[in-house]
Amino acid sequence: MSSIDISGLSSTYSDILAAQAEQIQSDKLKNSVSGDYTNATDEELMDACKQFEAYFLEQMFKEMGKTVMKSESSDAPTSNLVDFFKDNALQELATQSTETNSLGLAQMLYEQMKRNYE
Q: What's the pTM value of the predicted model, to 2 decimals?
C-alpha cells in the first residue's frame, strides 16, 4: 500500500481559511458601508465609519507585517497557527485602536456622510 503525502494539506487548508475569513470581513464591511443611511441614526452612521477605519488600520498593519523578515526555521503547522492568531490579533488591535485612539478618519467620514445625507 502506498503512502500519501499530506504535509502540504494543513498549509493549504489554513490559507483557504484565512482567505475566507478575510472575504467574510470584507463582505461584512461592504454591506455595512454600502447601505442606505438616509434614515440612519447618528450612532449607526458613526458605527459604520468606525468599522471602515478599523478595516483600514487592519489592512495597514498586515502590510506592515509583510515587511518583517520571517525566520526560516519555523515549521509549517506552527507558523500557520501563528498566522491565524496573528490575523485575529490584528483585527482586535485595529478595532481597539479605532475605539480608543482614533486616527480621525472615522470622524471625517461621519461628518462628510452627515452633510451628504441631510
A: 0.64
CA pair distance 1, 16, nearest whole angstrom: 30
Question: Using alpha carbons only, what angle is made at residue 31 by residues 118 and 87, rounded to the nearest 5 degrees?
Answer: 125
Query: Cell 498586515 sits at which residue?
Result: 62
Measuring CA to CA, which residue among 96, 112, 86 is closest to residue 50?
Answer: 96
Q: What is the pLDDT along the chain (118 residues), one digit of tens a residue?
A: 555 555 555 556 666 766 776 777 667 666 655 566 777 888 988 999 999 999 999 999 999 988 888 776 656 667 777 778 888 899 999 999 998 888 899 999 999 988 887 7
Long-range pairs of 50-56 with CB within 8 A, sequence gap ≥ 24: 50/98, 50/99, 50/102, 50/106, 52/105, 52/106, 52/109, 53/98, 53/102, 53/103, 53/105, 53/106, 53/109, 54/91, 54/94, 54/95, 54/97, 54/98, 55/25, 55/26, 55/29, 55/94, 56/105
